[in-house]
Design goal:
Length: 334
């Protein structure tokens, strides 16, 4: 998207839902075209990920540098101008969740997270001073599955019987619980919405963090966006597997009774819709005592995830103090 004032390539501003020209600073809001609508699964199936051999060279619109970026959107290696690739035979994203967290809030979330880390070296609450972050859209498959399941099993209902027994030469009675088992069968219908399956091997997204909007290529300008590597057919299989446990739980609950045994479940899917949805993340790393640590900040919720450092000194001191206390206690006892 070119700037109307100076003709520069505009960039998406995470957290502001708009496009800004890096040269004249003109800002234009992005308008959504309505709610995101999922597609029938059959329109997604069979579209394999792009292989490295299929990558096409692209030319930077500003400096004319030719490159072969593997990402769907990235920056020119020569002048850092945003580049958004044309899609080939792969699935076009149908929706995305816009960034609600801008860069400064992402770094503050990192510091707030770091402040909760026990036994971290140095001053962890100032990790943002050494951190670098990049706005990234991570692809995920999102499905809506309607299920109809026929099951067979057995239902157990408790009842009590009075029986007599001998104890100490006396005849006594007691109430004993028994279980009456009967055959059970039935049909359970359920609908599972927003079943998220990561579309890359990193497997980061597990839930839908916000309300998706229809996809617009403008959102990708200046944001790193990897392509999906998990085919839609495989993702659909994973989605069915993830809901299978809940389907079985619903069937068991339908049996009723005090105890229940589920023998078989046969599930059909009258309706299956899905889409490739781009989810917002701030990804980066921070430096602690010469070592780099990776982290992510959810661009919709601000949740921070990442590996954390430990200080050998801070871990050793409490252990030494504890050992001295134990030794002093033993001296008093002895």
């Amino acid at each position: 998207m070119l700037c109307d004032l100076c003709g520069g390539v505009t960039e998406y501003v995470p957290g502001a839902d708009g496009m800004r020209c890096p040269y004249c600073q003109d800002f234009q809001p992005l308008l959504t075209t309505g709610p995101a609508v999922r597609r029938p699964v059959e329109t997604l199936r069979g579209h394999l990920p792009v292989t490295p051999a299929e990558e096409q060279r692209v030319v930077c619109p500003r400096c004319a540098t030719a490159s072969t970026p593997s990402l769907l959107s990235s920056r020119c290696p020569a002048c850092a101008t945003p580049i958004v690739r044309e899609l080939g035979g792969e699935v076009r994203p149908g929706a995305l969740v816009p960034f609600a967290i801008d860069r400064s809030r992402a770094l503050k979330a990192l510091d707030d997270w770091a402040a909760t880390l026990w036994f971290a070296p140095g001053s962890p609450a100032r990790m943002s001073e050494t951190a670098s972050v990049t706005a990234t859209f991570v692809p995920a498959w999102v499905f809506d599955l309607e299920t109809v399941s026929r099951y067979t099993g057995r239902r157990g209902d408790h009842y009590y019987q009075v029986e007599t027994y001998e104890s100490g030469g006396e005849t006594r009675t007691r109430s004993v619980r028994r279980t009456r088992w009967s055959r059970a069968s039935g049909t359970v219908a359920r609908r599972f919405a927003d079943v998220v399956v990561p579309a890359t091997e990193q497997r980061r997204p597990v839930t839908l963090p916000g309300k998706p909007v229809p996809f617009q290529a403008e959102y990708l300008s200046g944001v790193a966006t990897p392509r999906y590597t998990v085919p839609p057919d495989e993702a659909l299989h994973q989605a069915k597997t993830s809901v299978a446990r809940r389907v079985r739980a619903a069937c068991r609950a339908d049996i009723g009774g005090d105890e229940r045994r589920l023998h078989s479940v046969d599930t059909r899917y009258p309706s299956m819709d899905g889409d490739l949805v781009l989810l917002p993340y701030w990804t980066g790393d921070y430096l602690v005592e010469g070592k780099t640590w990776r982290f992510t900040v959810d661009g919709a919720t601000g949740e921070v995830r990442g590996r954390r450092p430990y200080s050998a000194v801070k871990l050793t001191v409490p252990l030494v103090v504890l050992a001295l206390l134990v030794a002093a206690l033993l001296l008093v006892i002895l």
